[in-house]
Amino acid sequence: MDIPINPFIYSRAVMPSEFVGREKEIRRLLSRLSSDQSTAIIGLPHVGKTSLINYVMHSNIRQEAFGDAFQNDLLRVLDAHMLRSVRSQTEFWEQALKPLEENLARQLPVYLSLKDKFAVARENKFGTFVLEQLFESFKENKIRLILFLDEFDDLLSHPVLNSAEFYGSLRSLASRSLGLVLVLGSRRDLEQLNAKTQEINPHGSPYFNVFTEIVLKNLPEDSFHKLLDKGGDYFNAADREFIRGVSGFHPLIAQAAAAKLWDANEEGLKDVKRYEVAGRELHRGIKHNFADTWHVWSNETKRVVTIVALTQIPKMLGKQHVFAIEDDFKKLSDYSSEIQALEDRGVLVSSGNGWVITQGAFLWWLTDELVRNVRDETEFMAWLQAQEMDGVLTTQQKTQLSKTTSVVLEYLNKGATTMIEAFAQGAAGAALKSLGW
């Protein structure tokens, strides 16, 4: 029996052959690498940072873009999640310089001139001074170590590497040693990384101001449709609108939604039932994505998102209730930088009277969070405190938000299922209109 293979990937980073879009970001990154400039790839969880790194690690990609510019370079990817067992900076550099060690063992002539300097660096436990000398030798021999540190912000809780000595060494080597080019992959932007490390660096220059950001946003519309084209004739125009409405062009959510809709088709489901099943499976399968994103956001950003969601959800359900939120609470004018960052990343879009959240599936997740955790004013205050949002609200604002939440919850007796069913039963059209589409 010939069983068609579901072409949509969402449980792992995509391989180069599966990669879609990001042409502008790829050009910028490769251009910066070719001119020895260290870079930070910034993006919310699961937006494709690791997939982008995997893509540029592919030698054919670099060859096609820049010919032999990267011919002798050593490329290494270290995932910060996998560095939890590292007990010293010496162990870190042992892992980082593994490609050099392997090539020296192969007696490849182009690297043999580095043998003595590498031995000296190892004997001196890879101190910053001897590393700088080693990387100067790299550059003299037209070799570079291009080191990708993925999930870099996970090091903020590392028992050893979260230190002034380590960050200061990275900063010094990245800015002075042209034989080393660093690429950080991080959920937190450089401003946040500098703020998070300020306690261990109260008087020195920020550690990460020698990097330039490349921000990964949601997919542009043409790349989104190119992604869905993998499904061939499985998806009609209404299906594409459904996937767009729940994903807001976020690549992982779009892949997951397409995968679930594909499976629903394979099961022979039709019409409303097909969307309901796909929506429930999607909600169940990507909850962790939204929990990760919520964890990364600042308290102020959480406040902005919560207020926008509480005004948007009733409209998506066809309710016309207008909440009596006080003017100074509704205006959000004090949070222009947070709103701008959310717009830049495609989480919010401007819509006439304010902003709306682009990802319907995120609203499903937040709905369940509220229904599960907010049952009366006391529990709501506890929820605010657990989200570390209570400090950015006055007592009056907390009370008003609690009342608003209670009204919204009256419409959501089944939590996210209420909204999923609304999407499936025809409210999807109204939802897309409310999203500005």
Short description:
The chain is an alpha/beta fold. It contains 22 helices and seven strands.
How do the helices and strands line up, and which of them pair or pack?
Blueprint: H1 23-34, E1 39-42, H2 49-57, H3 59-66, E2 74-79, H4 89-96, H5 98-105, H6 109-112, H7 115-123, H8 128-140, E3 145-150, H9 164-176, E4 180-186, H10 190-196, E5 212-215, H11 221-228, H12 237-247, H13 251-266, H14 271-285, H15 287-296, H16 299-316, H17 327-330, H18 336-344, E6 348-350, E7 355-357, H19 360-373, H20 377-386, H21 395-410, H22 416-434
Parallel strand pairs: 1-4, 1-5, 2-3, 3-4
Antiparallel strand pairs: 6-7
Helix pairs in contact: 7-8, 8-9, 12-13, 12-22, 13-14, 14-22, 16-21, 16-22, 19-22, 20-21
Q: Mind explaining what this structure looks like?
A:
The structure is a single chain. By secondary structure, the chain is α/β, with parallel strands linked by helices. It has three domains: 23-215, Rossmann fold (3-Layer(aba) Sandwich); 221-288; 295-434, no CATH class. The protein is 55% helix and 8% strand. α12 packs across α22 and α20 crosses α21 (395-410).
Key attributes of the depicted protein:
single chain, 437 residues, alpha/beta, two-stranded antiparallel ribbon, 8% strand, globular
